[in-house]
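Appendix B, record 7
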Amino acid sequence: TGQSIEGNIWQGEDNADNGVLYYYVEVLEPLSDLRIKTYGGRGNADLAISYGGPPDPFDQFIDFDFIQSGNSANGRQSGQPDDDSNDQSSSKEDWSMTQGNDEEVHLYNVDVGTYYVIAYTYFRTNDFTIIADFTYPPENIDSDDAIELFPGVEYGPMSGYDGLDQFFKIDVPAGTERLEVDLFDGVGEAELFMRHESAPTPTTFDINSNAPGAGDKIGFNDPTPGVWYILLDSEYVFSGVSIVADFKDRYVWSYDGTPIELFNNEEIAGIEAPEGEELFFFLELENPGEYLEISTYGGDGILSFEVEGQTYSFDFDDFDIDFGGPEGRQGGRPNGNGDGLTSQDISIESNGDGTSQSIMIWNPSNGRFDITLTAVSDISDVSIIASWVESQLPPIDPEPDEPVIVETCKETAEIAFREVDTNADGVVSRTELRVMDDDSGDFDFDEIDLNSDGEIEFAEAVQELCTCDNELYNNFEQLADGGFRVSIEDFGSLVWFNEYNFLTMDVNDDGFVDFDDVEIAALLCDTIFSAFDSDGDGVVDDEDAFPNDPDESVDSDGDGVGDNADIAPSIANDLLYATGGTALLVLAGLLIFFLRGGMGGSGLTADSSQHWGDERHIAMQDEMLGLNNSFDKEIPQLDGHTTPFGDPMDSEMPYSQPEETVATTPVEVQPTSTESQISAAQNIAASEASSELLGNDSTQSPHNTNEISGVLEDLFD
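C-alpha cells (predicted):
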C-alpha cells in the first residue's frame, strides 16, 4: 500500500528508472492463474509482468498490431504471446494500460519460477496498492473427477485457459421442467458444453453456449432425467468465474412485437420464433463507446440479425491534444463540447452459422442501436447478448429531427396518379397500371375501376388508397419513418378520412401503436370515406344539390336554399318574400284605414279627453296612403256642419254615441254613395280588428294619437 511514482515523459539513460517501481513474485508450485492487481490512490499507473526479467516500458518492443480483447482476462491487456499458439495461455508476459490506477495482469498455466512485475507512469501517481493472487490448478480436469453441483449452490471462483478442461455434473430427477447452468462474475472468455450420461468435448455435445465473455448460460425445458455432464472450457483465458446449476419452472417465450431493450452484458435467453418472423431489440449508449459487440447463440435453428445505428470518427481540424490533465492523464481528446467528433449512420448484417451470429462495431456513437432478428428457420432456446465499453469521450449531440410531413391518402393518391398517368390524359389505362405495378402486383385494375369503363379515374384511385386499411398503412409508414411504433398522440393528430379508435388500437396499452397493432386494426376497420361524396353526408356528388355542404343535399323548390334551411321547401323563396311583403302592405293599409274610420265616428263611447284634436295626424295618415296631397285639404262635411256619427274635430263630442242618439240626429241630406251607408259597420269591425291586433280589449279604442302613431311607425319599420 501507499505506493507512489514520479515519472518523466522524456526518459533518457541518466534517468531510465524514473517513473518505475519494480517487484517480483516467487512461484513455488504450478498455478493455473497468477494475477497482479493495482488499485486506489490518485494518478495513472500502468502495470506489466514477465518471466525471465523485468519488462521495459520505455523500450519499443510492444507489437501494437496485436491487440485482441479476447486474448486477455478482461479485454484491456496487450502484448506479444509466445510463438507457439497452443501455449498462448502460458504467455510469459502481460500488460495493462488503462486510465487511472485500476490495472490487472494475468499469467495462466504458470510454472515454478520468478516473475517480475513493474508499476510505471509517464507523469505521477500516488498512494496506490498492489497485490498478487494465486489460483491453483483444479482437481476436476478429468470427467471421472467431475465436481457434482447441487441445485442453487454456487461453485467458484475459477480461472481457466486454452487447454484446461474442468468438468462438473448434476443429477436431474424425473419431472424437472427446466434445467439452467449459469456462469457469472469474472472476466475473459469461457464456454459451456453439456451432454447426457457422457462427458462432453468441444466437438461432441448435446447442447452448448458460446456467448461472448465469461457470462455463458445454458437453459432448456424438459431435460432428460439422469446425470448431465458439464465441461467448462476456453479457447483463450478467463478468471474469477463462478458456476451454478438450478431447476426452474418451465420457461415459455412470449413476444408481442414491442422492441426489447438490451442492457450491457445481460443475456436474454429462451428466444423462440417460427420461420420468417422478425423480433426487434434495441440498446442505448449514453456516451460514445470503444466497441459494441452483439451476439446470438445456443438453441436450435438458423437466424440472422441486422444492426442499425451510428459510429463516430475524429475531425482533426477541431481536435485538441492534451499532454497532461490534473491527474496526469495523457492523450488526444476532443474538446469538452464534443467538437471534433462526427457520426455517420451504419447498417451491418451478422456473420456466423446457425444460431451463432455476431457483429462487432468499433467506435459506436452514443444513442440508440436497433436490432432486427429474423428467424431463417424455426428457432428455439436462442440467447442474445450485447456487450460494450464506453469511452471517456463526451456525448455527440444528435442532429435535430426535421418535422415529419405526413401526406394524407388523398395527397398520396394525387402523386401516384400523376406518376402512373404517363400520357397525362386524366385517366389510367390498364397498360399504364401494369407497367407501374409489374414488379409488386399490389393493385388489381378491375377492383379499382369501380364503374368498369376500362379506365381508372382520379376519384377511383382516391377511393382505393383511402380505404381504411390503406389509410392506416400509409400514415403509419410515413410517421414511423422506418421505426417500429408511433405514439397514440402523434398518430391520432393526423388528418383521417375514416374513423378509428386509437385507444383500443393500442393492444398492449403502452401508449404506442406498432405495426402489429396496425395490422389488426386494418383487418377490423370499416371504410366510411367515399371519394364520390365530397361532403361525406352519404349522398354522392352527382345526386347532391349541395356537394360541399354536409347539412344539405336537396333543394325541392330550386331557389338555392336547401330544404333543411328553407322555410317553405316547396315554394321558391323569391315568391314567398314578394307575397309576404304585399300581404304586409295590404294589412298595414287596412289597419290604418279601419283605425281612422273607427275613430271618426264609430258610435262607441270614449273618454272626452281622448278626442282627435290634431288634424295633422289624420293628414299624415292620408299622406301615407296617398289619399291626400296637402295638409290643407278640407274634410268633406254634410249640410248643417254635422257628420252622421258626430264631428271628430268637436272636442266635446265623444268618439262614439249610443245608436238611439244617432237615429234621432237631424239630417237634411243623406249620402248618395253606398260606401257612406256601410261605413258604420266597417268602422265597428275595424275597431275590433285593430284592438285585437294591438292586443287590446275589443271594447277599447286607442287612448291617444301618439299611441296610434307609434304603432304605425313600428309597423312600417
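Remarks on this record: Residues 573-601 form the longest helix (29 residues). The longest strand covers residues 124-135.
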